[in-house]
Amino acid sequence: MGAVQLSHIKAYISNNFRNLIDLSDARSDSELEALLLTRGLAAIALQLLSGISFDTAAASITDGFNDGGIDAIYHDITKKEVLFVQSKWSDDGGKTISQGDNLKFINGLKSIIRPDFSQFNDKIKSRETDITSFLYEANYTVKIIIAHVSNDSISTHCINDINSFLDEMNDTSDLFSFEEIN
Fold first, then answer.
1. How does pLDDT run across 67-86, given as a tens digit for each residue?
2. To the nearest 10°, the Cα dihedral for 65, 132, 40, 14?
3. How far is CA 101 from CA 58, 86, 131, 160, in A?
4. Could you say which DSSP state residue 120 is in?
5. Are strands 72-76 and 81-88 parallel, antiparallel or unpaired?
6. pLDDT digit string (tens) for 99-138?
7. What does the mean pLDDT of the chain come to?
8. CB-hemisphere CA count at 13 Å for 106?
9. Which class for 97: exposed (0-12), middle (13-18), buried (19 or more C-beta within 10 A)?
10. What are 176's strand-pairing partners?
C-alpha cells in the first residue's frame, strides 16, 4: 500500500480511536503507536463488515498479551453473526500475516470453540459466557477475518491453513467463513 494511503489510514485511526481503544498495556510511546494502529485496524474491519459505531468497535478489541491471536470479537445480533479478527499493521504496507501468527489465530479460535478460555487474557475471559452462548446458538454464523494494509494477499500456506480449519468446522453445514480485508 502506498505511503499516502497508509497516512490516511493512520489519521483515521488516530482521529477516531485514539481515545477509545485501551492502550494501557503499552510500555513505550513507540509501542503505544504500534498498538493503536493494529488495534485500530481491527476496529475498522469490524466497522466495514458490521457498520458499528467507533465506541462499539473499540470495545470489541481483545488484542494484548495472551489473546490467542484474536485481536477483536464482535457479536452482531442483527445478522446473527460472530466476527473474530486478526489484524496486522505494517509501517511500510508491505507485510501481511505470517504463517505462525495465522496458526496462533486458528489455535485461539479452536480454544474458544472447545471451549477452553484458560490461556486467554482478561479481555477475552471476561466475555466467556457471552461468547459461548452465542457461538452455540442455532442459526448463528462465524466469520474469521484477517485485516492488514498490504496490497498483497496472504500467503498460500496461510490460506491452506484457514481452509483446513473451515473444512473442519463446516463438516455438516457452512457456519464458518473467512474474509481478508486489505
1. 999 999 999 989 999 999 99
2. -100
3. 22, 9, 22, 14
4. S
5. antiparallel
6. 999 999 999 999 999 999 999 999 999 999 989 888 888 8
7. 94
8. 21
9. buried
10. 142
